[in-house]
Amino acid sequence: MRNTGVTFIACALTASLLSPQTECADRSKAALNNTTAAHDLMQQGKAVYVQWCLGCHGPLTGMGRFPSAGTYRLQQRYNDAVPAMLEDRVDLTPEVIRTAVRHGMPIMPPFRKTEVTDAELDAVIAYLTQKKHK
Amino acid sequence: MKLPPGVSEEAFRRALQDFANVVGQDWVFHKDEDVVRYNDAFSPFVAEPELQRVASAAVAPTQVDQIQQIVRIANQYKIPLYAVSTGRNLGYGGSAPNLSGSVVVDLKRMNRIIEVNTREGYMIVEPGVSFIELQRYFEEHKIDFVPSAPGPGWGSPIGNALDRGGGLPYSDNFSAVKGLEVVLANGEVMRTGRGALQDPKLWPLYKYGLGPDLLGLFSQSNFGIVTKACFWLEPKSDLSRGFSISSFNDADLDPMIDALNYLANQDVINGFEIGSPLRSSTGSNDVRTEYGPAEAKELLRRRDGGTTAEWEALARKVNIPLASAAGNVRGPRPIVQAKLEYALEYLKSANVPGTVQLGMEMPTSFPISIDFGALTLKRSNLGHYYFSPILKKTREDLFAINDTIRNVFIDAGDYEMLDEVAFYGAGSGGPIGVTKEKHMVLLMEFLVFGDAEKNRRRRELYQRLVKACGEKGWGEYRAPVVFQDEAQAQFSFNDNVCRRFIETLYDAADPNGILSPGRAGIWPKHLRGA
């Protein structure tokens, strides 16, 4: 392909949103790195969440003509007993998130491993389950 | 484990191993827990799993040569393949194959943006790229062009275009495609149009080769697996602004349509919608909207649909217009302002009846919505699918098709369905006309529920609609996988010569019938009439 200066070429979107974690022999550094790694994992989880989840689980007011579909449906289901926005929930467990993503919910289709890899799903779980406890 | 038809378990296991040798063990999915994710999440059979179209396995390549090898393996074992770009064609079948037991070729991992050329206004992408990924890429690189895209953006430009989906700014998204790279049933790679030249520099710019145009053979078809597509892009507009005209008289819709057709043909407006707001106000398939008056529903439940006098009296009583049309202009700000000024002046000088209202200025961006709020949300529905015939841009045709549909519902005694649908109107359940087209598309949602009996009744209703409308010239532009045979059967001129001609081509190009058998009602010889 030509690069004319106005041509954007060969962008692979295939790279996982996750990057390999570094290892460290030093214990104190390891502790620091563990914290950093956890932070990184949550950041990566947020990126995956924005990519795949936010479209339906955004603000109830919506980002377009309608309320966000997932947030709206959860509000209907729980009648505000729990926050309708997933990011505001503190009761989500890894199992619940994994099941919802891999098996879907009413009106929500499941997500395949070609879309959200197992590692990316772990990152989303970290983001949704740990951020409120920080 | 579901097996491909006519393939032994032993042969299938060998084929899966051969696929794994090509793409890696991790990217061949054969466990039930993985394969079930290739079902149609919005299937009309969602409450009857035993009747659903299901895959036997899935394989997810990243390279064209891997697809070539997959096709050759499929030929060796006579295994049907069903290719999906991102598998998000919800409402029309998702990622589920026409033929149960097919192996889904999941192209999501082929998600490279090969080239975006802003000087000449095109892009070349792979099938796994989604609209959302494209939007982010364009934003990151500050590219002031947009592709033609539908509303919700989780699908694939290639997948959507190949299914001839609609969107902005082209309306027929396939019309923006100027070149394809395809893996044929024999494993060869072919490029259409100028891509066949040794120097393919004009591939994205001019869609024809020499001789018959091959491009269209690969939309809604099973002649190959598309691995790249060249799309024309449109410059991003400064803004978009619309206007509407409405009245309490049915007959006013005629001069409104005439005026908007004139403005569209003069390239003054970029798109328009027409409808009967009072009639369509009763549609209740979206819990987030307010419904119209009960009297309107009663009139629609009558076989004659209510007299003009009754509707006009009701319109004035409840102060909801009976006829409306809306036009839209987008482009650079001074052009938008000048065009709107011209349009409003024209409406006045042509004595088009009705009240004109100018809409808000809307910033334009990527033409997709990143939120999926438009998903229909009746309280308990699990999904939906579409009945989507093509009709003329006239009041006569708009009313005739709606009357036909209503009477199919009345004949079936299905007043629940009749009450859900927004008749005679734009948007859900209504027609949408786009400037450069001479037709409109009617989009009617069928909701699916956990109630198998209700879903069965609705499937029957859908089939009746396909036939009743097809007989009157309103064939579908696109159909859900499970109804494609019925939809294709309407195109029956001269003893189905169109279908038979396509079958002749299919038999020659794919003698083993391995590529998406049943797609758009085209089956391989050994499965024909089964």
Report on this model:
The complex is a heterodimer of chains A (134) and B (530). Chain A is mainly α. Chain A has one domain (27-133): Cytochrome c-like domain (Cytochrome Bc1 Complex, Chain D, domain 2, Orthogonal Bundle). Chain A is built from 5 helices and 1 strand, in the order βααααα. Chain A has helices at residues 27-52, 54-57, 69-78, 94-103, 118-130, and one strand at 7-12. In chain A, helix 1 crosses helix 5 and helix 4 crosses helix 5 (118-130). The model of chain A is unreliable at 1-5 and 11-25 (pLDDT under 50). Chain B is α+β, with helices and mostly antiparallel strands. In chain B, the strands form 6 sheets. Chain B has a 7-stranded antiparallel β-sheet with strand order 17-14-16-15-20-21-19. A 5-stranded antiparallel β-sheet of chain B has the order 5-6-12-10-11. The radius of gyration of chain B is 24 Å and the shape is globular. Mean pLDDT of chain B is 91; it is low at 427-431. The chains are: A mainly alpha (134), B alpha+beta (530). At the A-B interface, strand 1, helix 2 and helix 3 of A face strand 5 and helix 4 of B.
Overall radius of gyration of chain A = 18 Å
What percent of residues of chain A adopt helix (DSSP H or I)?
40-55%
Number of strands of chain B: 22
Relative strand content of chain A: under 5%
Distance between the termini of chain A: 48 Å
Mean pLDDT of chain A: 77
Instruction: Please name the two chains that share the biggest interface, counting residues whose Cβ lies under 8 Å from a Cβ on the partner chain.
Output: A-B, 41 and 55 residues
Percent range of helical residues of chain B? 25-40%
Give me the number of helical elements of chain B.
Answer: 15
Largest sheet of chain A: none
Structural class of chain A: mainly alpha
Overall CATH architecture of one domain in chain B:
2-Layer Sandwich
CATH-assigned homologous superfamily of chain A:
Cytochrome c-like domain
The helix-strand sequence of chain A is EHHHHH
- Unreliably modeled segments of chain A: 1-5, 11-25
User: What name does CATH use for the topology of one domain in chain B?
Assistant: Uridine Diphospho-n-acetylenolpyruvylglucosamine Reductase, domain 3
- The CATH class name of one domain in chain B reads Alpha Beta
